[in-house]
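The instructor's notes for this session suggest beginning with a concrete chain rather than abstract definitions. Hand out the sequence below and ask the class to guess, before any prediction is shown, which regions might be ordered.
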Amino acid sequence: MDAGEGRLRIEGMTIEYRMIGSPSAPMIVLLHEGLGSVAAWGKFPDRLAERIGASVFAYSRPGYGASPAAHDALPADYIQRHARDVLPKILDAMEFRKGLLLGHSDGASMAAAYAGSIPDARVHGLVLIAPHFFVEEETLANIRQAREAFERRNLRQRLARYHLDVDAAFRGWNDIWLDPIFAGFNLREELRRIRVPILIIRGDDDRYGTHRQAWLAKELCKCRVDMMLLPDCGHLPHREQPEQTIEAIASFYNSLEMLRR
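After discussion, reveal the predicted structure:
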């Protein structure tokens, strides 16, 4: 796979991607948030690659960005299902050899679900930005507010810059989170099975969850768990405090001996 932008075709799915660097180098794989995409990461992948010296791979899940939807609606277990059934095929198709999984919000949950479900010696660590390991009322309250902003204010127009089908992308994420069936979502068992080091980054002012998410990982994981809790920061540390976020990731990356060989 060459550096640049392209499409992966995997078992009926077309996945938009962007690669910075060579697949032969240690790589940081980016998993986007519930309303994210390749474009929504902005300059963060470039700054990360420049600071650390690793390759960076970002992709848009089916139904987001320029990746066509694979299903009419997200299933209630979409986080675990993507981690188990889709992400392994993407990693193989893009020739992933060794590196980190770095996820934001839903993407962080998927990275944790992957590491807790699939033994993969290529993955040497996880960076989880604002992860969700269980459902909190604070999260649901702000997802309800997002629905109102999408329907009555300018959120739809803002998101349309990042998605070919903005209505399907938003409704798929918003509807499943607010469905009562999703209330039982949790990754407690997956957290107990993770065996690689973890860095969790959260903002003190994150309206989409509380620090209980980070403390649950600290309690359940049988591995190293580093935490950075940023003051004056919300749900988007990589955008709101990019320098501190990138420096924390660089320090974590450099602490992993297998990635420096």
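Then share the key points. The longest strand covers residues 13-20. DSSP finds ten helices and eight strands in the chain.
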